[in-house]
Amino acid sequence: MIQFTINKNAFLSAMRIAKQAIGSKIAIPVLSKLKIQVTSEGIHFTASNGQISIEKLLPANDKDAGMLIDSEGAILLEANFFDSIVAQLPDITFTFEEIENYQVKLSSGKSEITLKGQQPELYPMIQQITAKPSTKIAVGELKELFNETAFAVSTQESRPILTGVNIQLIDHQNLQAVATDSHRLSQRRIKLESFGEDFQVVVPNRAINSFRSVFSNDEDTISVFLNATQILFKNSTINFYSRLVEGNYPDTDRLIPDPSLYSLNLILDVADFLHAMNRAKLLTAGLQGGTVKLSVHDDKLMLTVNTPEVGSSFEELTMLEKSGQDIEISFNPQFLIDALRVLKEPKVKISFISNVRPFTLVPKDDSENFIQLITPVRTN
Amino acid sequence: MIQFTINKNAFLSAMRIAKQAIGSKIAIPVLSKLKIQVTSEGIHFTASNGQISIEKLLPANDKDAGMLIDSEGAILLEANFFDSIVAQLPDITFTFEEIENYQVKLSSGKSEITLKGQQPELYPMIQQITAKPSTKIAVGELKELFNETAFAVSTQESRPILTGVNIQLIDHQNLQAVATDSHRLSQRRIKLESFGEDFQVVVPNRAINSFRSVFSNDEDTISVFLNATQILFKNSTINFYSRLVEGNYPDTDRLIPDPSLYSLNLILDVADFLHAMNRAKLLTAGLQGGTVKLSVHDDKLMLTVNTPEVGSSFEELTMLEKSGQDIEISFNPQFLIDALRVLKEPKVKISFISNVRPFTLVPKDDSENFIQLITPVRTN
Description:
Structural class of chain A: alpha+beta
Helix content of chain A: 10-25%
Distance between the termini of chain A: 74 Å
Oligomer: homodimer
Number of helices of chain A: 6
Radius of gyration of chain A: 26 Å
Number of strands of chain A: 26
Strand order of the largest sheet of chain A: 14-11-12-13-26-25-24-18-22
Largest interface: A-B, 31 and 31 residues
């Protein structure tokens, strides 16, 4: 039966990494629990929502934990309740002692708390991935790749494949992510330092959101493992498993226009354009499908919104460069806001074919590796 | 028709003071609007939820506003929408211009926004209070008085009179506040510097919450005005009106025990006791009427919670002083948490009559002016 003494904060930090797998919706009751397994390696925390599973090891020799293991074992505890109890313990250290009937006694200062647990055998097995790693990548790079694409996934369950981000390793070294909800698309490519085996998988957006908070150190390098149904991101103490979205991702390459088709290219200041879009969005607020009209006439760029119920707005924007023909085109301002927000460069190049064809946004000085498409709205 | 130019942030700050009267539930549609009236004095903002009404003046000579009034008038605008539009204006100043059909044109930088408004006559009249002020008080003192009592009001609409704080001016100078939900009571008295006419009113808790955020400067002195149905808190630029709760407040003086009845007096450390209660509360969590048992035996004070569904806790607490007989008494830990939180002194005196009679808490070194009562829970 388990017995150990440990620093409260080190214990909580490690536990909470695993606990992030537990969402607000509990698919089956046992998944509201946390599995705590104590071995000579340290304390293993396991939590899952059925789609995402996280295993976190707090190593026995962790310098902040001051861990003293008297006895090994495993137990299940109600995750949120246990967390709130530990957080309120009076002393900086506490003793965790398993007693009869899968109960746990926590002692800290003059306080003694006994909690009901359950036998560890009730917890579902996490399917292990035994393959060799497909590639290695810095956490910060992967987060950036996710950040620049995941916002464009579909939230509609009618086409489940579009609720994930399509991730491919191409030519052993080029990692590409694509997301689309069929109205807009974002495609980003980065060159990895290490080589790997080519792959193509669709990672659910929920897993991408969790990934960002679970792997907090951007400098860290993680290995990526795959099997037919799962992806595993792994560092020295964390195993982060996610189910993949099943199905064939649509061929998005054919959607990217040939640059020879563009009739108008503009260079705009990202911050100015974003602020203008935020204002335009307010005037369309509350209206499904509210649009803003962008008009380019000679050397003027104008943005107009007209929502009879609430009012109208009119704004001139400076074009840093213009080449091509004038246009009038309408679109959902939220799509532009999302697209501009993830641009780190100060200038964006926007290219139009016609007012009924998708237009593209690329960073002015890195147009090769990052492209976004937005479909206009036809208005008459 | 209104026309003025002004600093955006000064305008927003003043407007948002009035806007706090507008809650999330709009009683009648016109109360979602803000009334803006421009006179030679400056800009008057008026907002109301029917119970609370706030008038805020941004004076024409306000040094941060840089106000330039070209033309006076009044108009109604949709409060939240207007706020979000102004907040997004590109420049640090903007021009507000009323145009035909109660429309407003906002110009800022290269942006021009036209909003629909309504004629000011549609806004309900705020009933004015013409009486002389009943008393004057520093904002900070009044906030403290509210803070120490309002938490104990009832949230049950079955006895509306208990949903407010009973405020009395006694002997022209002693301001007393009492709140009770019939399970616990808090009574606080402060001596004012200025004299006033005695009064007794019940102020709704909602108004007390708004008061705290509307009057942000604790050093400020406000005047209190009353009529039969309303209270008005007033400083140089804000009129804060609230309806009073109608009815007779129960005589709470008779509930306060005679000190000769106490069989046990304890002095405890407030912070220690509060932390212990927070832990105890966790073990009763989710259970309506979960209780903690406090046992005093000889020189030991023990707190126990036993909730068969989740677990139990046991904790020893240090008594700084004890005089009287031993006791075992059970109560709702939340009541203790609420009571201890508002104590600013580090030590509390708790006095018991028996395990079925309410017990009292007073600050150890200021026992005259602040008393709280808590009714125990009978357990068998």
